[in-house]
Design brief:
- The protein is built from eleven helices and 16 strands.
- It has a seven-stranded mixed β-sheet.
- β3, α1 and β4 form a beta-alpha-beta unit.
- Helices cover 28% and strands 25% of the residues.
- By secondary structure, the protein is α/β, with parallel strands linked by helices.
- It is globular and about 70 Å long.
- It starts with a strand and ends with a strand.
Length: 306
């Protein structure tokens, strides 16, 4: 299960009700902040998430409405909050801009309050553990090094408690060993194998997050059968020419991608102040009914639908 919290859902400039782009994805002990537009630290506080364990930031690209909040965040860390390290992931162009912002503007020669590590993202797996995998994929937008991120739980076999109890498997480390695929020997000499207490393989949840994008044909496969797709909808079809000129999508394009990829739920974000939420929804829903136009502070749990 992944928890998704929208912190900023506006395009290019904030509006009265929408802050600049930022979202948080939570999974177990991990907290991933995706993009960090101006004002994100206030949104973090207002949402109740705060700054604790905020040590991983994923940048979709280096445009200012997606990175300027990092200056204020690092400044706050240097005065009030303490974390041991901050990991920032993104394309090289985005990282170069962020490095200038942090070290030449905010810190100006001062020592950073924590260890700051920059990771030049390439397509493929960025990190994984025994339960999930985070990977990056290229996205076409204005400028180099634009990426989206896919969060996928790994397949698992559920532990069947009733079967284990019938076989006399005690609670404790023995059950953990069976879950890890190891056979165990009980006190009476009985050998219990994992297949005796594990159910059929269950696929995990998949969440695909796309920032700004100018085309969708290269996103179809990475979005295929995702349980949730988060993607921009900066324009409506009436201004499709502007969308193409500035490397953005219309709500109809995003919805068409969701339909073709067979995703379960579509979340539209990066909403322009030129349109109402109702207008955006009205364009997307006839194409893909399970569409949500995200609002700041919306919280969603992404689970594998059966």
């Amino acid at each position: 299960m992944f928890e998704l919290v929208f912190l900023g859902t506006s395009a290019s400039a904030p509006s009265v009700r929408r802050g600049l782009t930022a979202s948080m994805i939570l999974h177990k002990e991990y907290r991933f902040l995706i993009d960090c537009g101006e004002g994100t630290q206030r949104q973090l506080l207002k949402s109740g998430l705060g700054f604790k364990r905020l040590d991983k930031i994923l940048l979709t690209h280096g445009h200012l409405d997606h990175i300027l909040g990092l200056g204020g965040l690092v400044s706050t860390f240097s005065r009030w909050e303490t974390i041991e390290k901050l990991e920032i992931y993104g394309g090289k162009w985005a990282l170069d801009r962020v490095e200038d912002l942090i070290f030449r503007v905010v810190l100006r020669g001062a020592r950073p309050p924590m260890k700051i590590e920059f990771f030049d993202v390439k397509p493929g797996v960025l990190m994984e553990d025994d339960t999930f995998e985070l990977s990056a994929f290229p996205v076409s937008h204005r400028g180099p090094g634009c990426f989206g991120y896919a969060f996928r739980e790994k397949e698992r076999r559920p532990f069947l408690v009733e079967r284990a109890e019938a076989l006399g498997v005690p609670s404790g480390p023995e059950r953990g060993r069976l879950v890890r695929g190891e056979s165990i020997t009980l006190a009476d000499g009985t050998v219990v194998h994992p297949d005796q207490v594990l159910g059929e393989t269950v696929p995990g949840a998949a969440l695909v997050y796309v920032g700004d994008a100018g085309r969708t044909d290269n996103l179809l496969e990475v979005c295929r059968e995702a349980d949730a797709l988060v993607i921009e909808a900066t324009y409506l079809e009436v201004e499709a020419d502007l969308a193409r000129r500035f490397g953005h999508l219309t709500a109809a394009q995003a919805a068409t991608l969701a339909r073709r990829a067979g995703v379960k739920q579509l979340f539209l974000t990066h909403i322009s102040r030129r349109y109402s939420e109702r207008q955006v929804r009205a364009e997307a829903e006839p194409i893909f009914p399970n569409t949500v136009v995200a609002r700041d502070f919306d919280r969603v749990r992404i689970v594998k639908e059966k």
